[in-house]
Design brief:
alpha/beta, TIM Barrel, ten-stranded parallel β-sheet, binds S-adenosylmethionine, binds iron/sulfur cluster
Length: about 300
Amino acid sequence: MTSFDEALVIFNYPFFKLLRIAHEIHIQNFDEQSVQISDILSVKTGGCSEDCSYCAQSIRNGTKVPKQPLLDLDTVLDAASNAKKRGASRFCMSASGRCMSSEAEFDAICEMIRAVKAMGLETCATLGLLTRAQAEKLKDAGLDYYNHNVDTSPQFYQNIISTRTIDDRIKTIEIVQKAGIHVCTGGIVGMGETNEDRVKMLVLLANLEIPPKCVPINKLVKIPGTRVDDSNPIDDFDFVRIIALARILMPGSYVKIAAGRNTLSEATQALCFFAGANALFSSEKLLTVDNVKDGVDRTLFDKLNIRLIA
Ligand code: SAM
Ligand code: SF4
């Protein structure tokens, strides 16, 4: 177990000492030149009753994301095939909502998982809160990863979301792990939280009974009409420090630079990779927000001699 005090001391190490330690841990656990690529598709969009202050899909925010019903299987498989062509090894299917209340929609998503898996891609889903029975059905469908972000520290959580608690999220994470599915869980930085909050979020993740297999760190994408769209952005070097601390606290987890990467310079991304980041999203869209444009990553990977994990 890592204490918050210990983690905060590490976070505040002199910058190059922090990166050196993180990099040494990274190369003990992973190939420093390899990065895992995922692609994500919103299979059901908008109209969400939760009040996540950062999210374009919440009906509580003044955003205008049109509701889109569950996509048909062929549309999903076309997107998965394009993702594979772009070098993705994992395909994530995201549905808006507190949880999957429609059994028919849940079964349709299980069908999507089976079909995407049959294409030779790892599968990931993010469907909100789950019951044990749902987690077991997802496992039977061949699901490899379930994304369920804790988003911030326990202390800051109610500032960001009031329609659920962080314990609700941790309960689903534990249900998913008990069903034998890898958990992908991380959070967002730049929503007005402090560095101490960011450290507390990572300590919470590192102290889970089973460390997450993948830790996505999202840099807030400011969406007009959301309640955090006027927050001070995180300093790039603090972002790199968070990546390094995630690596040090969770040596065997994939650390993913997730949303907001299109606002990071190539040099900042290179520092993140050196600090232990080894996973990305390749899609041009991340649900409802832009990601990096096609081809931009190929140029960066060539400059940094990065290989993709197949
Ligand atoms: N509805 C599912 C849920 O809430 O678990 C799907 C989550 S989907 C993967 C969206 C995730 O991306 C959220 O958990 C959040 O961490 C992140 N996200 C959403 N909106 C964001 C934004 N504006 N900026 C950065 N990250 C965002
Ligand atoms: Fe709904 Fe998920 Fe957006 Fe929260 S993050 S408002 S639960 S779609």
